Amino acid sequence: MATSQGQTLSSPFTKAVVNSMRKLYPEALADKSFDNTGLLLEAPFHLAKRQRNSVLLTVDLTRAVADEAIERGDSIIVAYHPIIFRGLKSLTLGDPQQDTLLRLVQEGISVYSPHTAVDAVPGGMADWLCDVVTGPEAATHPSLSTTEKPPLPPRNVSDPPLHTRTTIYPNPSPPEGFETAGMGRLVTFQALQPLDSLIKRISSITQGVVGLPIAIPQGRNINDINISTVATCPGSGSSILMKSGQPVADLLLTGELSHHEALAAIERGSVVITLFHSNSERGYLDSVMRSRLQAAVEDEWDIVRAEWAGTTGTGDTVISGLLNDSSVAVDVSSEDRDPYQVIAL
Asked: 281 a known binding residue?
């Protein structure tokens, strides 16, 4: 959409989604030393080709996911991994990923990537992996004081094991309300936990994978190993879970760890469980992000609609129809999947 001054604008609904993502997962928490986060593709708003008030969540923005978004008529894709990671010198149809971006902008679909901001935020992916291992902690909203927690109910035998949770690499200057943000989480149990019972909990998020890659110290047996500490990091965990070649916990839970780092960990008595890179991330979208973003966008869309109503004439029936539509839909892609499959031989 172009204004009378010739300025091109993205859709107001896209603005509501971007504002919501930035509130839930502040870009300041991302690791900008290597990452590329934020609004990566801002598609112009076409009045004659209005998209639905809908968001498609995915870990990876592949051609199949783009086809899905185009067919659905989504306004924006929130892709956890940035499709634009390094500098581009051209945009051509000969490159599959660039072709995807060009097709999306032609359809009026924008792309936002939060990546490591989701890793670092309290209640983000690293905490979600901890919840898988321990059971969920009491949820707190970022705007609430982290010291104000509701009283705990009496414990029973089915409650999650008592533990503490800390951040491995705290953010040195987190935004207000995100004081516990940072990379990686460390769970310390008050009592030793059998490894086999932790494996059963972890297997609940493998989404059809027939097995778990696990590395244990040579000469040990899974049934005889007890765990005092668990460190979690979604995706590639080497830079977080290994410090100067030393594992930071009894059990390292991540998406992938290199051969030599896994050897170094088990030689020092630790256990390593890898879930495949994106399988350590994908379950978070449906378990946590979808409902959080739905609620946030519903509130933000009301704000943006009011702002546009105050600056837009009433004669345009397309704009009026858009601003009168309070609907919001946030869904997880059905086409997104890890590139690796496990084949039983």
From this structure: yes
In the structure encoding, which two tokens stand for residue 146, read together?
A: 């982290």
- The reply to whether 141 sits in an annotated binding site is no
At what angle are helices 290-309 and 12-24 packed, to 10 degrees? 130
In the listed set 277, 298, 324, which residue is the last one of a domain according to the structure?
A: 277
pTM, rounded to two decimals:
0.89
- Say if residue 119 carries a ligand binding annotation: yes
- Is the same domain home to 98 and 134? no
* CB 249 within 8 Å of CB 231: yes
First-last CA distance in the chain: 55
Q: How many domains does the chain have?
A: 2
Give the residue among 220, 229, 222 at the shortest CA–CA distance from 133: 229
Give the pLDDT of residue 265: 97
How buried is 309 (Cβ within 10 angstroms: 0-12 exposed, 13-18 middle, 19+ buried)?
A: middle
Confidence of residue 309 (pLDDT cuts 50, 70, 90): confident
Of the pLDDT bands very low, low, confident and very high (cuts 50, 70, 90), residue 87 is confident
Q: Do residues 272 and 130 both lie within one domain?
A: yes
